[in-house]
Design a protein that fits this description.
homodimer; Isopropylmalate Dehydrogenase; 50% helix; globular
Chain lengths: 332, 332
Amino acid sequence: MIKIALDAMGGDRAPRAIIEGAARATREYKCHIVLVGKERHINKFLKRNDYVKDRISVKDASEIIKMDDPAAVSVRRKKDSSISVGIELLKDKKVDAFISAGNTGAVVCAAALKLRTLPGIERPGIGVVLPSLNKPCMIIDVGANIDAKPAHLLHYGIMGAAYFKYILGAYNPSVGLLNIGQEESKGTELIKEARVLLEKSKLNFVGNVEARDVYKGKVNVVVCEGFVGNILIKVTESFAEASSELLKREITKRLLPKIGAILSLPAYRAIKRKTDYTEYGGAPLLGVDGRVLISHGSSNAKTIKNAVRVTIEYVKHKLNKHILEGLEDLNG
Amino acid sequence: MIKIALDAMGGDRAPRAIIEGAARATREYKCHIVLVGKERHINKFLKRNDYVKDRISVKDASEIIKMDDPAAVSVRRKKDSSISVGIELLKDKKVDAFISAGNTGAVVCAAALKLRTLPGIERPGIGVVLPSLNKPCMIIDVGANIDAKPAHLLHYGIMGAAYFKYILGAYNPSVGLLNIGQEESKGTELIKEARVLLEKSKLNFVGNVEARDVYKGKVNVVVCEGFVGNILIKVTESFAEASSELLKREITKRLLPKIGAILSLPAYRAIKRKTDYTEYGGAPLLGVDGRVLISHGSSNAKTIKNAVRVTIEYVKHKLNKHILEGLEDLNG
């Protein structure tokens, strides 16, 4: 059975939501979950949930890296944190994957330090799959590395394309480079140099894409450096929240719109499902030698349950083998 | 009467939408508009519109800088373009302001070249005012300069705060620095150095803000470098379009939601007004010695009419004097 280590202490709603999500996952999916964190806490919350007994175990970790702790320092100092212990389980091949909704920087740092990056990859990247009008679109990197070099962006393209091809089943996935215009002359030096590398590669590279192309689903994979990618996904989230809040305020002002809103509810729910990050579960940290999934800091039980589902799919495929093939193609 | 030069040839729907917008503006606001561009074309479209005769004149310009022309090269080569001629009118004080929905890079370049930046300002910045849950929020820069230094970000803070204080009437406007986390330890070297400069200034600087704070209206002014700012506003736009398209698809699938949607229409319209860039008209190019407003490339007549309204407000205030005071405060 697939074995997944889950950071029980990571995320704004941990450990309660994480453990509830794990319990729900054991009822829906065939997998074994190792909850990593303070054993006493975990057992307390576990008791309140209905789960499949032989599909959950607990691995004690006495320390917690908080959401706003400095990443590198915490990983070095808190050797018995749930993040470090979870990554160690993965390194020792006691589990097939590790999921955390905790401090992203710390997860990236622990993974790069303990698992190491794949040969040829200098920096890992986080790839988030977003919904769009046509097909889903992966943005890579959304914040693993905010000091990207042109070669890192090329590697993101290779990793994202491999993920789309082998896990999401896209034929010859298209790759675009996020820029502020489509013309070759536009963009920073980083972008211009990365464009040359991507053009020379064997990827199905379509050139520059703009932010508006993301939600139009123009390409499968959008490559960008981590700072910009992080802002991109956070803006989307906050804008979605703000506009539904504004809509609610307007609707409750008058009676007819209120009735209208009630009648429209099924449509709202359908769109919410399509744009809701809790449906998407987790984002793979690509480029490290092991399967690490990063969930949203504000993950609820449903997010975690879905992260387990995504992770099971991820474990079934030998993605890293294909990423290495993609790197070999560069030199071939 | 306030005199405004308007680039009749700039924008995806030029000249038709621009001229229609100008005509509408003359019926609503007390100002004189100089339409800059190919005289014959302008007169042809002008005839089809209802406008106040003595409030519109035409200034011929024989060339057009296209939306995707390389900025610097075009400004140098096309000396008689509508953008260059419009900026010249402003430089020669024949008008009080210039509005263009054309090639943004070319407008920035022509303005910096012909009008020059204010003493002490190295690079101009475009400030866009976005709606939020509480108060509007200005993002500066959204793409005038994609090679920002820490001092440029400091200057954006000073210029944005001056705009908020003197034009939007905010008391002691708050300024935040866009980052991927609130902690001091986060961000690129550019961000860390800019943070030190902003902290030392006399601005009401609240530290790092995240993308999610933009729509929560946490601060009045969000400072960022142009590449990131450009992605931020374009993502918002495209996400808003994509989600309303998705909602439409869901709603038309079934009858009850359809009736519901019709009843909710007034609420939709209210939210659309609040998030629609056509309502906001134009974004000031701050830091140059003259008043330049940049409108969205896909501006329609309403956007242009609103840009004229925003420009009239802008002309009424001596913003550049206040920006210079803000710069003096740095050394005082």
